[in-house]
Specification:
With about 750 residues, this protein is an alpha+beta fold. It folds into four domains: about 220 residues, Histidine kinase-like ATPase, C-terminal domain (Heat Shock Protein 90, 2-Layer Sandwich), CATH 3.30.565.10; about 140 residues, 2-Layer Sandwich (Ribosomal Protein S5, domain 2), CATH 3.30.230; about 170 residues, no CATH class; about 100 residues, Immunoglobulin-like. Helices cover about 30% and strands about 25% of the residues.
């Protein structure tokens, strides 16, 4: 075959180019044939399994990384015992523990060359919002006869026994075929184990809709030589095409990520860092679209994942921590970061690292498998003022195989709605609850919005609390606002760093004695030590016991930072109120005496937020916060004249933020000003109490059934909630207009009585 035909295909980046190429190829080789992908005429359902084009594209990147690891494995002599992709990159490429997060800025040059082994390039197509995307690797490559059983296969198990590859789990890059009209594949086998490099093989994949009068649906198929039934090939040298694979998705449906590559959101840069949150090795993205560059030079950037970006974020991160916890027959590592709030745009900073409504990212081998909504942070962990500042990474690399199969579908797009998914959700909540610093930071942000209550507002607050209490009693005991603030104070001073001593000299538990715990719940034990932090992640050097074991069990260790650590335990479901036990921590440094400390435990009754066994509700702790245009809450929530109210429940209180710059209320206030100041206060008080009452009950009713749209921002549920409050505003203001002369006479207390 003439190389000029291959050169024409290498240059083809649009649907029009591909149409011209197939004509030229037919003239060159004669009869062509299209074979079904996966040797399956019914492949539509399998390939269309993935609804997210971004997830399919990232699968291609994962496959490219696997090809590089496979090539290195062969070059290393096919060693046994490399049990994971991270172990592979640690052993073969000197990435510490296979974690890019540990590479500081000064050491980035050491992995720059490694990142060139996988390159994602954005090219112009026929449509500015549908880029042509190249995924090029310097991996092991393929021979022409291997295409059908590898890159064009469905549900094959070529990687199943290679534990150092990530791609054995999932449908692979085949789901990406559904999101572009044509896909072009080039591959050339590398020169390995004494054999010469192979020829350059290539094919084109398309979707054939078939005959609509005869076929129920279409089929994905690829182009082959009619004689050989294999992809086409041409002999070449490295200067023409270096060994490895190039997959080109022509005019791919990536509208949400079609911005110029350097854009912090809505771009391939954002997509890559979010979906490969903690990749096992770096790769590169290149922007070569003239339509986006606007006469600027092509740009390229290395991708190391958002885990590393957050770990190395410096002043952008106010607090970070992690916990390493037992989960079923494996382990879950949970990392979290609180973004700083020291700038005007700080509420939007989270968009650089995660979707606003889905900031809890679950990964396996660093690739996103799904996420959880921010309602976990707001409603379950009770950190409503951190929901736009807290990013959580749930690393499932240590998850046991059975749990992984139950938790993740093959599309890697979401977490299965199952018991194991509920268990994982509960573990995330308990890990975050165990970090007292999060509550302190939430309280700090809350203070930015709160004002000192005036006497009229304080009177409204007390009346409102009684109304909510009465409503909860008649409403069947719904879970309502918290009745009283927690005992622990919010003042926080960072503890002084404890210098490491080797061998260590002390290990001291610092939690209050006795540690009160709840049956079936996780609890934490804090400690100080001058031992090295890495001792506490080793079973050989650290032990944590609960005696008797029927009381509880050790669940994992949190970060030991500057001598201060947190150990996680879980109390058994069936322990009785009043039961006692003892927890012991012991560190065993090599060639030195062991150090230990113990703490008494006591099982106590779980406190209730509202109500008790006698059917009597406690008075809820509610704050009413009038918000004006000049206030931070107004701008942070992007309110306008139609906005009504917002409710934020934390572990101390329910805080009702009411827009007193609302257009309907402003008109009534203006009318009241023609009378006197007491009329203004009466109208304002009536509005505050009735809107607050409705907003709190609406919040209690709806908070257990949240929903987000696909972008993770406020979805249909939030829109419905806004509409409901706007309707409530119209109702209350309508009543006030009808009874204006009555309400505007007398004291504010009389108006709302």
């Amino acid at each position: 075959m003439e190389r000029k035909v291959v050169e024409q295909l290498l240059a083809a980046t649009s649907v029009r180019d591909l149409t011209s190429f197939t004509r030229a190829l037919q003239k060159e080789v004669g009869k062509l044939k299209w074979l079904p992908v996966g040797n399956n005429d019914n492949n539509l359902a399998i390939i269309n399994l993935g609804s997210d084009s971004a997830a399919g594209l990232i699968e291609r990147v994962t496959n490219a990384v696997d090809a590089v690891l496979d090539r290195e494995w062969i070059q290393q002599g096919r060693p046994d015992g490399v049990k994971s992709p991270r172990a592979a990159t640690s052993t073969w490429f000197d990435i510490p523990n296979g974690r890019l997060g540990g590479i500081v800025r000064d050491d980035l040059k050491e992995i720059q060359d490694l990142s060139k082994n996988v390159v994602v390039t954005l090219l112009d197509s026929d449509h500015s919002d549908l880029p042509t995307v190249d995924i090029r690797d310097q991996g092991v490559g393929l021979l022409p006869q291997e295409f059908g059983d590898s890159i064009l296969s469905l549900n094959k198990n070529r990687k199943l026994k290679k534990l150092f590859l990530a791609g054995a789990f999932g449908q692979g890059g085949s789901t990406a075929l559904a999101h572009s009209q044509y896909t072009v594949i080039f591959s050339r086998r590398a020169a390995l184990e004494g054999e010469a490099a192979g020829p350059l093989a290539f094919t084109v994949v398309r979707y054939n809709p078939g005959n609509v009068d005869q076929d129920k649906h279409g089929v994905y198929e690829y182009l082959v030589d009619a004689k050989t039934k294999a992809p086409f090939f041409v002999d070449c040298n490295d200067s023409f095409f270096e060994p490895g694979t190039l997959v080109r998705h022509v005019a791919m449906s990536l509208q949400k990520y079609s911005a110029v590559m350097t854009s912090p959101t809505g771009s391939m840069w954002w997509l890559a860092h979010n979906y490969l949150f903690d990749p096992v090795m770096p790769f590169r993205i290149e922007e070569k679209r003239k339509s986006k560059l606007k006469d600027k030079e092509p740009t390229a950037r290395m991708v190391t994942g958002n885990h590393r970006r957050l770990t190395q974020a410096g002043s952008d991160v106010e607090h970070k921590s992690s916990a390493h916890l037992v989960f079923r027959d494996g382990r879950i590592d949970i990392h979290w970061w609180v973004l700083s709030s020291d700038s005007e745009d700080s509420r939007d900073k989270i968009r650089n690292y995660a979707m606003v409504g889905k900031p809890i990212i679950v990964t396996y081998n660093g690739q996103k498998q799904g996420d959880f909504p921010n309602t976990i942070i707001r409603e379950e962990v009770k950190l409503p003022f951190l929901d736009r500042y807290l990013v959580v990474h749930v690393d499932c690399d240590g998850l046991d195989g059975e749990s992984r199969r139950q938790l993740f579908p093959t599309t890697r797009e979401t977490i299965r709605d199952s018991q194991i998914g509920d268990d994982l959700r509960r573990l995330i909540v308990e890990a975050l609850v165990g970090d007292d610093r999060l509550r302190e930071l939430d309280h700090k942000r809350k203070q930015k919005y709160l004002k000192t209550s005036s006497s009229p507002v304080e009177a409204i607050r007390k009346r409102l609390a009684k109304r909510i209490k009465a409503s909860l009693l008649t409403g069947g005991g719904k879970e309502g606002p918290r009745s009283a603030p927690p005992e622990s104070p919010h003042e926080h001073e960072d503890p002084a760093a404890i210098p490491v001593v080797d061998p260590p000299t002390f290990l001291q538990i610092t939690s209050a004695v006795p540690r009160k715990v709840y049956a079936g719940k996780m609890f934490t034990v804090k400690f100080d030590t001058d031992a090295r932090a890495d001792y506490f992640s080793s079973l050989d050097h650290f032990m944590a016991l609960v005696t008797p074991p029927t009381f509880g069990a050790f669940q994992g260790i949190a970060n030991v930072r500057e001598g201060h650590g947190v150990a996680y335990f879980r109390a058994m479901e069936d322990i009785e109120i009043g039961a006692t036990a003892k927890v012991t921590l012991e560190v065993r440094p090599p060639r030195s005496a062991s150090l230990s400390d113990s703490l008494d435990l006591e099982a106590v009754e779980l406190p209730q937020t509202t109500g008790d066994n006698k059917g009597d509700a406690k008075t809820p702790n509610i704050n009413i916060c009038p918000i004006e245009k000049e206030d931070a809450y107004y701008s942070d929530k992007h309110w306008d004249g139609k906005s009504v109210a917002g409710v934020e429940s934390d572990d101390e209180s329910t805080n009702v933020f009411i827009n007193v710059s609302n257009d309907r209320l402003t008109a009534l206030i203006t009318r009241a000003q023609r009378k006197d100041d007491s009329a203004v206060e009466a109208i304002r008080s009536f509005y505050l109490e009735h809107i607050a009452f409705y907003a709190v009950l609406d919040h209690v009713t709806k908070r257990l059934a949240p929903a987000q749209d696909e972008n993770g921002d406020a979805g249909e549920a939030a829109v419905r909630k806004d509409a409901t409050l706007i309707n409530a505003c119209e109702t209350v203001c309508g009543i006030m207009e009808a009874l204006f002369d009555v309400l505007a006479v007398g004291s504010p207390e009389a108006a709302v009585a």
